[in-house]
Design a protein that fits this description.
With 189 residues, this protein is mainly α. The protein has 7 helices and 6 strands; from the N terminus they run H-H-H-H-E-E-H-H-H-E-E-E-E. The chain has helices at 5-23, 32-43, 51-58, 62-74, 96-105, 109-117, 120-140; strands spanning 78-82, 90-94, 146-147, 154-157, 160-163, 178-179. It starts with a helix and ends in a 10-residue tail after the last strand. Bound molecules: iron/sulfur cluster. Iron/sulfur cluster (SF4) binds at residues 45, 47, 148, 151, 153-154, 163, 165-166, 179, 181-182.
Length: 189
């Protein structure tokens, strides 16, 4: 019989997170998909905050994501900014209110407490989940979203971090953000 243990654990944790979100007063006016889109935009870098990247990250249809983004904009949680080089494309940025909402909701307190109580094994778990995600994305040939500091193009220089793919300097803290151009260290160029 196929081992379903990993699936079962992930599914149970996802159920607990959905139940937790439903109980939060701040979620009364927010659909779960809107929270997912808002959280992605709070975590991604400047190359990855477009409507198309949100669609790819969430793995949903363009129409569904477009409606969610419109709702977030109408609620004053995100705002559009035209691209400085290509005025036809837009970037989506969290407003002060949007950032405050994400800071209040993510991560759920129960998850943070459980991870903290695991100590070093909690950190090992994060590393193993990162490896699992990278493996799935590579094997399934889906967009390789990942943390910038773990990318093969991430360069640490004396004058600060740089992206080896775009050749541009990276702002402080960019290493902790999600990028849609991320490539695993062992991935062929
Ligand atoms: S180093 Fe990699 S993850 Fe970071 S911005 Fe460049 S392509 Fe994206």
């Amino acid at each position: 019989m196929t081992d379903t243990t990993l699936y079962d654990y992930l599914e149970r944790i996802a159920s607990l997170m959905r139940a937790w979100a439903r109980e939060q007063p701040q979620m009364a006016d927010l659909q779960p998909i809107q929270l997912s889109a808002l959280n992605y935009l709070a975590r991604c870098n400047r190359y990855s905050n477009t409507p198309l990247a949100v669609t790819d990250f969430l793995g949903l249809t363009k129409g569904t994501v477009s409606q969610s983004l419109k709702a977030l904009e109408a609620k004053g949680l995100i705002e559009k900014r035209p691209d400085a080089r290509d005025r036809r494309s837009v970037h989506l940025e969290l407003t002060h209110e949007g950032r405050g909402l994400i800071d209040a909701l993510v991560p759920p307190a129960f998850l943070r407490l459980a991870q903290e109580s695991m100590g070093a094994r909690g950190e090992l778990l994060i590393e193993l989940l990162r490896e699992l995600l990278g493996t799935v994305q590579r094997q399934e040939d889906v967009p390789g979203f990942g943390l910038c500091r773990t990318c093969r193009y991430h360069q640490k220089r004396e004058d600060g971090a740089h992206c080896g793919l775009t050749g541009e300097p990276l702002e402080a803290g960019a290493g902790e953000l999600i990028c849609r151009e991320h490539a695993e260290p062992d991935q062929a160029a």
